[in-house]
Amino acid sequence: MAKKFNPAPRDKHAEDPREAIEADRDVHAKLEAGLMDTFPASDPVSAAQPTPSKVDRESESTSLWDKVLRVFR
Fold this sequence. Notes:
Blueprint: H1 17-37, H2 54-61, H3 64-71
């Protein structure tokens, strides 16, 4: 039987599938370890960090002096 025609060219810059699978296994193993360490907790483990809140962003970008001045305005 003839091989099916694939119109998409081979991407020479694509990731190596073996490396991608290994990275997925590594992330999965870390999440499993985190889940086991926090077992009877109510919140599930997450691989992503939440975005900073408005208060967190303001506290990183403004100095203490700016905050003091803002109180008296």
